[in-house]
Specification:
heterodimer; A: mainly alpha; Four Helix Bundle (Hemerythrin (Met), subunit A); 5 helices; B: alpha+beta; Alpha-Beta Plaits; 3 domains; four-stranded antiparallel sheet; 23 helices; extended
Amino acid sequence: MDYGIALCIAGGAVATFMTGIGSSIGLATAGRSAAGVLADKPERYGLLTLLVVLPSTQGIYGFVIGLMVMLKLNMFGGGLQEAVSMAVGFETLAACLPVAIAGMFSGIHQGKACSGGILMTAKRPDMCMKAGVVYAALVEFYAILGFLISFLALNMGIVFPAAVTG
Amino acid sequence: MAIAQMTKVMIVSYREEAAKLLEALQHEGIVQILDAERAMVTKNWPELHIEGQRPRNLEELIGRLSNGIAFLKSHFTGKELTSALRPRLVIDSGKYAAITNSDENVKLLVRTEALASRIEQLGDDKNHYLSVLKGLDPWVDFDEPVESLHGFESANGFAGIVANQKLSELTEALDKVGAVIEEVSVSGKNHACIVLCLSTSASDVHKILRNFDFETTNFEGMEGTATELIKTNQELLKKTEDDLAATLNDTEKLAERKTELKILFDHYQNLLSREKTMAFAPETDHTVIFEGWTKIKDYARLEKVVSKFSGSSVGKIDISEGEVPPVEIDNNSAVRPFEVITRLYGMPAPTDVDPTAYLAPFFALFFGLCLTDAGYGIIMVAMMWWVLKKIQGDTKAPWMMMSCSILTIIAGALTGGWFGDSVQVLAINKFPWMNNIRESIMLFDPMSNPMPFFKLSLGLGYAQILFGLCIAFYNNIRRKEYVAAVCENLSWLIFLNSLVLYGFFKSHESLGIISTLAGWFALSQVVVIFLFTERNSGLAGRIGGGTFALFSTVFYLGDVLSYVRLMALGMVTAGLGIAVNILVKLVMDVPYVGFILGALLFVGGHMFNLAMSTLSSFVHSLRLQFVEFFPKFLVGGGHDFRPIKNTYEHISIEDKQ
């Protein structure tokens, strides 16, 4: 049994589902607030939609890291020439953790920040971009850092066996 | 490509012709008029301020018209001449004038309201008769006149319904207080019964009946036997239904004239706008004063309009201290579609630059990179071409999407994305030439080698942020804010570029001198930023502000890294496309129907991916402009220029002359 590949896939899965959880919770939090505001102020739809979708980025980052693990394993092209060692498996799993953990917490908390921004936009639409969006976007910075580390570690820090050709 | 220059104007008009002048101004749509509350003239001469009355009669009429349109629309059975893309009916100006000047129009509204009221009344009557008939149904076998249950000298009678399973217990309970119960009929799970008791025990009987959920039937006001009452009510129901059908028929015919109400609605909305402006404008005993704003380039037109009125005059006036002009942006036809983005953000401040022209190429490019699929781009171009052919009115948004779609095709072709990997996976066996063409125009494949995409995303981000700083530098120079331009913009431009050069050449031993020079340049700008960012504050403010400004280098790093979403979204589109193609390939192996199922899945799957990815691409490209790009040079918070002008919700007037 090839435990190396299993660990790699576990890494990709963790990156995808943890960031997905973070984004889902964040989107739900922001979406609930926006729905409440829109009941009274439907003209704010454009501004609020921007705030609602902000926490979706983390899930995208996690998905990309998951996809990259699959590409590294050449899962769409017939696999690798040699078995993946346990060391590479653990390295891959570890590489996936920054985006997974930072993405999950960032998504949840960005949703809360967006929710606050949405409530503020209901009363002060002129402050939506300056404060609501910018403050919420700052929370995302750490998910980006997590993604960056995961991305660079996968692409530059781990040596995978060569892909099967032909 | 700039913010339109505004001038403050004052128009003074004799009261007798002020309404006509206002109508002419509304027709031109070039001047925003301030009410007495905001006009400077009333601040200088408070006696000109008047407590205007809202034109409530007109507001009420518009409300009635709105209800009338909704009513007729719900009863219209013909073919609608409007659609989502063409929401307004095109009306000849002659017809518009004829309808708005006709005395018939109010009669049409009154008739509509009468029909609405009649239908409501008949509906209520119908429900009443149905309810009475339902109540009488269990009493068909009760041969005595229903009024005979009342009017006993020393006894009380109750008619009602009780559940079958409670009947025997109820009978026992009533027996104990000397009351009797007689069953009239059984229908389903219920019994219709009559209860008789002495008046002295009526309250006890009433309690017992309530305990057994005895549902009393009310015959009050009815006379005759149940059979006679049923017959009478059936006749009344029939007559009501006939009346209702005839009224609905009349309404359907009248609904064909709903366009007339729509014309009236728009006409009176515009009249309301004028009436409100007039009611709240500063005035003297004989004149009305319209103070407001117009674009400098429209001033000659404004003079021409006012000159047609002998008792009115217009002149430019100085902008008062602290007064902020409204903002309007004017762009050429190539850039104008992207005003949608600027307006979504909110107007720039009057001292800002108009960001539309600067964001346009970046937005379209980012959108293309986020989608990164030439096949999707082709579909979107076709869709936008169709929308542009069909749409009525403002075409800015579809033209913007058209530009974005064209860049999607280019970005997709350069990264080898054609409906995901369909060319490599689905068409490789039968049409190998397609893959040859794909590879010949492809620069890199992000799915096998993502690093070029990664570098491109960060490079574009860095370029846009520097561009934002350049715009801020240019704007400060334009406003003669030279110190701010050097200390707040140029210093950052040199600092950031020096840092990049320092990092880039540090590892190149032969070019170490460049690295050293860049390091010194960066340090020199650190001093400028530290000391002169908060140059108007005291020493503590300078140190605090300078420290925070230097710390904000981290934010620049965050801003650049944020552009990595371009790569991420591009890969998401490709990844979902690949997933669809894998499913299609699996389904294609199903015998007999595999090809059909595969085709359906291919179309459905890629349309889904296109819809989801387009939404993400739009929102994230938007976000990069609003969050990362605009704050580098834009203050924002400007107020929209809102000239008084004719607006139409339901119709579009076409002048055939």
